[in-house]
Write a structure and sequence with these properties.
With 317 residues, this protein is α/β, with parallel strands linked by helices. The protein has helices spanning 40-57, 97-105, 114-125, 184-188, 190-203, 208-212, 222-230, 234-258, 268-272, 274-287, 290-295, 307-314; strands spanning 4-10, 14-20, 26-33, 65-72, 76-77, 82-83, 109-113, 133-137, 145-149, 152-153, 262-265, 297-300.
Length: 317
């Protein structure tokens, strides 16, 4: 009997379940809002129903599943499979997710921090192919990283390795969601770029960013900043270069510590391309130590919208 893999992607706003063959080809996907405010029991019950729905769409029975991979925001314990209190999942507190799903479906279940799972997917299927030492950085609602060394995810002592977004670059800088101030995430994430753009527009309202946002300052988002900069808007261009400087600083620290062959940056960096990546590369070359700086390549991630699906599947393929 042919066996199949199930992948589960758990985010603060959306849930996704996929079924794939043993080569990682996605056969079907179901996506629904998380509705995290209803608590962990509700969300886990919803996930079980979504898995069954996805299986039904490709006419596969539970007995044909060989493994389940789960990509979820941390903190979590990959060994016990317990999800603790992720900031984007309120009311979750030490949820034994691996045990619940293993018991429910009677197959091996693997759970991984979403940034680590995404890094592994990029190493296996995307821009990290052919490299032994890979760092993948998220650059969207938050900034995190996953580190893959010689085909293994680096977890650290308590599954917390890769929290590069919470290195402090500006003491007493902008407040970060972690509670500290001046973190890389509080400066360069999508919401942080939007906040800095809105502050800048208050002083210089003649900008394409405002037009792209329909004339409402509070509606300006990071994608408006990128689009306006690509069209030659000087204020947006300055914001992109400020962002690139701090991203480059943070990556230079990472390059010195981890010594990767390649750093792959997702989401905003993919949309902005060399407009953002080139000044990041220059900053890394200026700020990192010479030998690791000469070794590393800084590239856009390749998997795009497929990364969430492949992240969970890559864990069990």
């Amino acid at each position: 009997m042919t066996q199949y893999l199930v992948g589960i992607d758990i985010g603060g706003t959306k849930l996704a379940t996929v079924v794939a063959d043993n080569n990682g080809t996605i056969l079907h996907k179901v996506r629904q809002p998380t509705e995290a405010g209803y608590g962990s029991d509700y969300v886990v019950s919803k996930l079980i129903k979504m898995v069954d729905q996805t299986l039904a769409l490709v006419e596969i029975s539970r007995s044909q599943i060989s493994a389940i991979g789960i990509s979820c925001g941390g903190p979590l314990d990959t060994k016990t499979g317990i999800v603790y209190s992720p900031p984007n999942l309120p009311d979750w507190d030490a949820v034994p997710l691996k045990k619940i799903l293993t018991t429910e479906f009677q197959v091996p279940t693997v759970i991984e921090n979403d940034a680590n799972a995404s890094a592994y997917a990029e190493w296996k299927f995307g821009g990290g192919q052919g490299y032994d030492e890979v760092v993948f950085m998220t650059m969207s609602t938050g900034i995190g990283a996953g580190i893959v060394s010689k085909g293994q995810i680096y977890h650290g002592a308590s599954d917390c390795a890769g929290e590069v977004g919470h290195q402090i670059l500006i003491p007493n800088g902008p407040l970060c969601g972690c509670g500290n101030r001046g973190c890389l995430e509080a400066i360069c994430s999508g919401p942080a770029i939007a906040r800095r753009a809105q502050e800048a527009i208050q002083k210089q309202p003649e900008t394409e960013m405002l037009k792209l946002a329909g004339g409402k300052i509070t509606a300006v988002k990071s994608e408006h900043v990128v689009a306006a900069a690509q069209n030659g808007d000087l204020l947006a261009f300055d914001l992109i270069h400020q962002t690139a400087f701090y991203m480059g600083w943070g990556i230079a620290n990472l390059v010195n510590i981890v010594n990767p062959e390649v750093v792959l940056i997702g989401t905003i960096a993919v949309a902005a391309g060399d407009l953002l990546l080139d000044p990041i590369r220059r900053t890394v070359q200026q700020m990192a130590m010479t030998r690791p700086a000469q070794t590393v390549r800084i590239l856009p991630a390749k998997l795009g919208d497929r990364i969430g699906d492949l992240a969970s599947i890559s864990l069990v393929i």
